[in-house]
């Protein structure tokens, strides 16, 4: 009882829900209907319909491309896991095909195996799928932030310097960012950019190539070079060391510029400045905690300004001047200075770096006939304060990251520096060129076809007098059918997608079905069919000559049966083609046979009844027949004529079979000599001999006839049986 009550409650709730939904539907329709009516002038306008169609097409294409990309990525992921098996299968197929189609027996099978291994191996298959993945992967996110390459002289402590920067540093990376990290390099992600540290010189070229592959359109936004102040001070008078460091930096910057194809801004950072006497004393007096302030000189000139070695002097002049102002400010504040001697001599000690740094930079930024010196954006200093690297945080936040899009290509490039993208661009350029050429050719062909089709179409209606299509020769009909065949000969234009699905053929087919077929072709066929019916009626009214030979009468009966059967088939075909038709099966064949029967002339070879306009026009056309099948040919009259003619032939056959040719034998063999004179005896004898031979031949022919047609024949092979088969092909009333 409780379950029944619960079911009733559920049923009642479901009913209430359905009623509520129906009420909501009615309310929505009531509110939306006025909006639909008010916007009817808009969405019923052909222009807005066309724009809406374009919008829907674009959305559909985007969805299709997205689905294709998902499918391609899934397929690549699947195949990459089984590339060894795929390579083995391809190699096996290649070996089988080569063994089957090799031209000479002396050809070594090892050569084929080596070539197969060269073209189809795991490495090449992986390269192919990597290229597909590379071309199908979006790389926009890689260009949103700035990428900088960190490099420097040996023992410049650049790894310690970059690791010490915590300002804006990200530790949580996205999955796609983790995939960028490569062996031999350190990748440091910040909120506004990325710094890539090359761990050693052995990996330098490979890392630069990898970065270029990741971002082919703008591999890097700049280069951060680090030089150790300790190295400069330890080699104060060693020009060889300075030259070596400068040349090493020059080679690296030249390699970067050559590989990336970009002129990159260079930011020079002097590390380990704590070795400079007074460095820690000065900055400890300035701040109790290690500072993230930016300490150095920024180049005020434009990035395209030619490099000048005087910039080093300008940098030290600016920095030393700022230090002296700070020294005066700190000393005037009255605060205690822990190591005042080192504090006051810091500017002098720092200036000792100018000479060695100038020599290094002079070699590093040297010009050549092959390249200009990279633009130097400034010189900065960093070092340890209280055991921690300082003076670097604001260098990235306030100098590096704000200076975006300063890198520019060495020359105006039309193709990507990445090999895969460049090959794809070459292929695209060739494809576009071929497409343009093909479009021009197809446009010319289509325009020529359109002009010829228009002339042929207009020529059909110059003279629509049906009498010229009703002539027995059929010249006008051949001309009309030939024009329709030419109209269907639309060129295949691969570069014009609109022609892939028929182009103008459907419109011509519809026009032919509405105009040409009812008023010209079917009317002409009806006229010719009536003429054939009239000829058949006249033939049936001809008198039968009962004295004629059996052969003559048999030929007349066979001919009449054949003509009547052909007419009946033609009439059936005409009624069927007049429509409506359920399908196109047999339409072309029926149209050809009907045309061939109705006209006396031979159908030209240029008329093709299988064209879409001829077949499709018949399918779409409809012709009203205002007569019954028996109206043109009187079936009773035809049947009576057949009966009479058949009766006469049957009588002749009976007489021939039952009455042997004995009269000729009697006349030839039983001539009376008493009625002849003796002088004529010899001629009578010769004449009788010829008559006897002739009579014997006639009799033997009769015997063969009896044997063939009556004694050794079957009901189906006898003369009567053959006539019966012909009569069975007729449509009896």
Describe, in plain words, how this protein is organized in 3D.
This protein has 733 residues and is α/β, with parallel strands linked by helices. It folds into 4 domains: 53-137, no CATH class; 141-417, Rossmann fold, CATH 3.40.50; 437-632, no CATH class; 660-728. It is 61% helix and 7% strand. It has a 7-stranded mixed β-sheet. Strands 5-11 form a two-stranded antiparallel ribbon. The longest helix has 42 residues, at 419-460. The protein is elongated, with a radius of gyration of 52 Å. InterPro entries: T6SS_TssM-like, TssM1_N. The chain crosses the membrane at residues 47-68. It comes from Candidatus Endobugula sertula (Bugula neritina bacterial symbiont).
Question: How are the SSEs placed, and which strands pair?
Answer:
Blueprint: H1 2-38, H2 40-43, H3 46-81, H4 83-101, H5 109-119, H6 122-136, E1 146-152, H7 158-163, H8 175-178, E2 185-189, E3 193-198, H9 204-214, E4 222-228, H10 229-234, H11 239-260, E5 262-263, E6 266-271, H12 279-286, E7 296-298, H13 310-332, H14 340-350, H15 354-364, E8 376-381, E9 383-385, E10 388-390, H16 393-400, E11 408-409, H17 419-460, H18 475-487, H19 505-540, H20 550-577, H21 587-598, H22 612-620, H23 629-632, H24 635-658, H25 662-669, H26 681-711, H27 719-728
Parallel strand pairs: 1-3, 1-4, 4-6, 6-8
Antiparallel strand pairs: 2-3, 5-11, 7-8, 9-10
Helix pairs in contact: 3-6, 4-5, 9-11, 11-15, 12-14, 13-14, 17-18, 18-19, 19-20, 19-22, 20-21, 20-24, 25-26
Keywords: Membrane, Transmembrane, Transmembrane helix
InterPro entries: T6SS_TssM-like, TssM1_N
Transmembrane segments: 47-68
